[in-house]
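User: Can you recover a sequence for this backbone? Please restate the input before giving your answer.

Assistant: Of course. Working from this structure:
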C-alpha cells in the first residue's frame, strides 16, 4: 500500500483539513513567511504520527553503520558521496578534488558556524565585514560578491537565492551546525550538473539522521561578547519505518561593546568609537520527516545583525542601522530503484528569502537628529523541481540523466525613505530557468574511468548555454588515484548586480562571466593511516563581473575583463584508531588580470593550515588544535594587509555523566591583530576582526543520546 493510501485510511476529517491547510500555506504564490511553511511541516509531522497508529520507537536493535571515528583512512576511502556526480561513488572515483569535514571533527574542533568549518578546508579562506561572512577559494573573493560563485546545498537542495545568488555562511546560515553530519566541498566548475552558481565549486551540507539523535537532546552555550545560544532537538526512528527529526535553536549576542574605526576619529562621530552597535540574534528551525522512499524537509532561519561599521555612508555609531535576513524552504523528495535498475530521484520545493535593511542617514548633512531611516528590501520567492535518473548500462557505463526547472516568480528589490516617505527604487521581476543534463561514467578498463557530462541551461534573460565537464581517472593501484580534469561554467549577472543601481532597468547591461578550468589531482593512501593529496590547476575567467564606483560615487557592477589564475594545493592527513588524527595543508596561487597583470584584491598568495585532534583520556577527553596562516592581501584602496596566523583550541569531554558532553573553546588564542579587506560600501578599506574569545558548551541527551 502506498504512503498516501495509508494516510487516507487513517486520517480523520479534521486531520485532512489541517494537512490541506499546511500544504496550502507552503504552495501559495503570495508573500507567506517561510516560518509558516516550517510550522506547516511540524503540523504535518504530528498528523502523520497520529495517523500511523503504530508509530512507536523501535525496541529491537538494528545494525547501525560503522562509527566513522573508528574507521581508518584506508577504510574511509571506500565511503561514498553523491554530490560530486549526482550518483553514489567513492571519493577516489569522483571527477573532482573533494574535502569532507565530519560531525565528529566539527564537535572536536569547536566550530561555531559553517564559515568556521569552511575556513578549515584546503584552499579556502573567509572574510567578514561584521555583517556577512564571505568565502574565498583558490584566490577569488571579489568585493560585493555575496558568495554567488559557490553553490551552497543542504542535502542536495539549492540554497542560493534568486536576487543576489547569495549563500549565507556565518550566523546568517539557516541551520544549526550541531545538526550537520558532514560538509562536502567539491572544487572546480560543476555547471555540467548544477548550473551557473557552481562557478568555482559546490558545498553540500548533509544533515544528521533521526537515528543519530535517538530521542530528545538540548544544548546551551555561553561565550564572549555577551553571547548565548540554545538548542532543543528530537529524533526518533519508529517501527513502521518513519524517521522524524525536529530541532529549534536560538542565538543572542550583544557583540563587542566598543569598536574603534580610525576613519571616523572625529569628535562629531564619537571619536571613532561605535558603542553597542554590534548585536547579533538569530533563530532557526529544522524538520526532517522520511518514510520509505519519501523524504520531507523544511529549514528556516532568521537573523538580525547590527552594523557598527557605518556602511553605505550611514550615520556612524547609530545602533538602528541593521539588517535582517530570513531564509527558508520546504522540499518533498522521492527516491526509488525500479525493477529495470533505474535509480530515480525527484524533488519538488518551495523557497523564500527576505532581506530588510534599516539604514540611518544624515540627509541634512548637519550631523544632528532627526535622521532619515532608509529601508532596503528584497523579497525573493521561487519553486522548483528536479528529476534525476541513473542506471548502469552494458556493464561499463553508468549513465545519469536529469532535468531541472526553477520558476522565480518573485524577484523584488525596493528602497525608500520611511519618514518622510520617498520611493527610490521599486524593481519587480520574474524569470524562469530550465535545464537538461547528461553524464556518462565509462569504465574503460578496471583501472581507468572516463567521466563526461554536459548541461544545457536556458535563461529567459540570456538564452541558452551549454557547459561540459570531462575527467580521466587512472587508478593503477587500489590506493592511488590520478585525475585529469577539465570543466567550464557560465554565470549570468544576478538581479542585484544588473538592476539595483543600474541606469538601464529595461534589460541587463552586464555580460555573463565564464570560466574554464584545467586541473590534475593526485590522491595517494599510504598504509592504513595516511593520505596524501595534491593538485595543480589553471583557471581562465572571461568578463569577470566586478564591483566599482562610478563618477557619481554610486556603486555599480561592470565586466572587469579577463583573469588568469594558477595554483598548487598540497595536503597530508593521518588518522589512528586511538583517536589521534590530523592534517596539514598548503596552498600557493596567483590570480591576475590579463590586461594589466595586476594581482586581484583579497587574494592571498599563500595559505597554510594545521589541524590536530589528540585524545587526552581514552574516548572521553579530546583536545582539538587548529592553526591558520594567511599571506598578505591587497585592499581595494591598494594598501597591503599583513599576513597573520590564527590559533584555535578546543577541549571536549564526552560523557562527563551518562548524558552530558562539555566543551570549552578558545578562539584566536594568541590574540592576533588582523583585518579583512572589504567592499566599496565601506569607508574603511579593511575591518579589524575579533581578538581572543572563548565559548563554553554543554549538551545533554536524555537517556544518553545527543
Amino acid at each position: 500500500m502506498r504512503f498516501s493510501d495509508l494516510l487516507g485510511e487513517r486520517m480523520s476529517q479534521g486531520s485532512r483539513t489541517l494537512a490541506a491547510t499546511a500544504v496550502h500555506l507552503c504552495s501559495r504564490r503570495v508573500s507567506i513567511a517561510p516560518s509558516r511553511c516550517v510550522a506547516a511541516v511540524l503540523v504535518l509531522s504530528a498528523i502523520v504520527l497520529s495517523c500511523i497508529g503504530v508509530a512507536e520507537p523501535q525496541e529491537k536493535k538494528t545494525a547501525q553503520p560503522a562509527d566513522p571515528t573508528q574507521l581508518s583512512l584506508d577504510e574511509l576511502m571506500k565511503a561514498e558521496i553523491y554530490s560530486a556526480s549526482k550518483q553514489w561513488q567513492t571519493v577516489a572515483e569522483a571527477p573532482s578534488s573533494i574535502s569532507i569535514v565530519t560531525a565528529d571533527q566539527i564537535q572536536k574542533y569547536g566550530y561555531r558556524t559553517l564559515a568556521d568549518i569552511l575556513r578549515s578546508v584546503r584552499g579556502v579562506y573567509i572574510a567578514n565585514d561584521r555583517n556577512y561572512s564571505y568565502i574565498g577559494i583558490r584566490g577569488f573573493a571579489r568585493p560585493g560578491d555575496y558568495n554567488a560563485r559557490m553553490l551552497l546545498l543542504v542535502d542536495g537542495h539549492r540554497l542560493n537565492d534568486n536576487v543576489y545568488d547569495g549563500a549565507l555562511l556565518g550566523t546568517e546560515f539557516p541551520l544549526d551546525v550541531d545538526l550537520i553530519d558532514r560538509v562536502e566541498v567539491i572544487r572546480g566548475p560543476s555547471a555540467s550538473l548544477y548550473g551557473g552558481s557552481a562557478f568555482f565549486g559546490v558545498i553540500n551540507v548533509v544533515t544528521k539522521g533521526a537515528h543519530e539523535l535517538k530521542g530528545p537532546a538540548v544544548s546551551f552555550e555561553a561565550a564572549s561578547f555577551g553571547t548565548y545560544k540554545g538548542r532543543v532537538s528530537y529524533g526518533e526512528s519508529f517501527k513502521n519505518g518513519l524517521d522524524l527529526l525536529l530541532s529549534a535553536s536560538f542565538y543572542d549576542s550583544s557583540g563587542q561593546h566598543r569598536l574603534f574605526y580610525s576613519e571616523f576619529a572625529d569628535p562629531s562621530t564619537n571619536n571613532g568609537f561605535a558603542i553597542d552597535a554590534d548585536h547579533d540574534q538569530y533563530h532557526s528551525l529544522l524538520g526532517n520527516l522520511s518514510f520509505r522512499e519519501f523524504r520531507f524537509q523544511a529549514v528556516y532561519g532568521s537573523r538580525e545583525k547590527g552594523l557598527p561599521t557605518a556602511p553605505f555612508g550611514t550615520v556612524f555609531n547609530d545602533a538602528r542601522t541593521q539588517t535582517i535576513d530570513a531564509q527558508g524552504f520546504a522540499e518533498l523528495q522521492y527516491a526509488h530503484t525500479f525493477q529495470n535498475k533505474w535509480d530515480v530521484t525527484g524533488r519538488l520545493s518551495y523557497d523564500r528569502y527576505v532581506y530588510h535593511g534599516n539604514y540611518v542617514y544624515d540627509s541634512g548633512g548637519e550631523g544632528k537628529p532627526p535622521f532619515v531611516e532608509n529601508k532596503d528590501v528584497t523579497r525573493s520567492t521561487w519553486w522548483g523541481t528536479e528529476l534525476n535518473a541513473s542506471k548502469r548500462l552494458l556493464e561499463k557505463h553508468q549513465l545519469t540523466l536529469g532535468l531541472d526547472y526553477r520558476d522565480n516568480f518573485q524577484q523584488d528589490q525596493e528602497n525608500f525613505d520611511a519618514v518622510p516617505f520617498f520611493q527610490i527604487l521599486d524593481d519587480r521581476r520574474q524569470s524562469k530557468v530550465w535545464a537538461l543534463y547528461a553524464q556518462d561514467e565509462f569504465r574503460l578498463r578496471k583501472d581507468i574511468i572516463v567521466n563526461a557530462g554536459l548541461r544545457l541551461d536556458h535563461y529567459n534573460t540570456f538564452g541558452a548555454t551549454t557547459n561540459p565537464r570531462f575527467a580521466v581517472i587512472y587508478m593503477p593501484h587500489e590506493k592511488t588515484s590520478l585525475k585529469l580534469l577539465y570543466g567550464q561554467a557560465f554565470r549570468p549577472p544576478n538581479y542585484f548586480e544588473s538592476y539595483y543601481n543600474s541606469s538601464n532597468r529595461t534589460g541587463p547591461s552586464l555580460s555573463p562571466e565564464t570560466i574554464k578550468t584545467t586541473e590534475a589531482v593526485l590522491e595517494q593512501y599510504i598504509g592504513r593511516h595516511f593520505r596524501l593529496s595534491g593538485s595543480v590547476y589553471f583557471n581562465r575567467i572571461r568578463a569577470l563581473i566586478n564591483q566599482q564606483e562610478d563618477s557619481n560615487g554610486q556603486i555599480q557592477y561592470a565586466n572587469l575583463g579577463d583573469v588568469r589564475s594558477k595554483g598548487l594545493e598540497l595536503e597530508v592527513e593521518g588518522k589512528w584508531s586511538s583517536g589521534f588524527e590530523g592534517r596539514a595543508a598548503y596552498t600557493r596561487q596567483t590570480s591576475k588580470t590579463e590586461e594589466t597583470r595586476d594581482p586581484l584584491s583579497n587574494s592571498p598568495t599563500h595559505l597554510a593550515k594545521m589541524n590536530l585532534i589528540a585524545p587526552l583520556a581514552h574516548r572521553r577527553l579530546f583536545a582539538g588544535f587548529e592553526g591558520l596562516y594567511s599571506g598578505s592581501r591587497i585592499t581595494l584602496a591598494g594598501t597591503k594587509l599583513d599576513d597573520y596566523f590564527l590559533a584555535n583550541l578546543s577541549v571536549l569531554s564526552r560523557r562527563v555523566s551518562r548524558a552530558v558532553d562539555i566543551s570549552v573553546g578558545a578562539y584566536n588564542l594568541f590574540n592576533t591583530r588582523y583585518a579583512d579587506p572589504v567592499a566599496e560600501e565601506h569607508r574603511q578599506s579593511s575591518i579589524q576582526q575579533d581578538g581572543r574569545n572563548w565559548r563554553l558548551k554543554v549538551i545533554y541527551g536524555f537517556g544518553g543520546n545527543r
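That completes the design. The helical segments are 3-10, 13-27, 34-52, 73-76, 103-109, 114-119, 191-194, 495-499.
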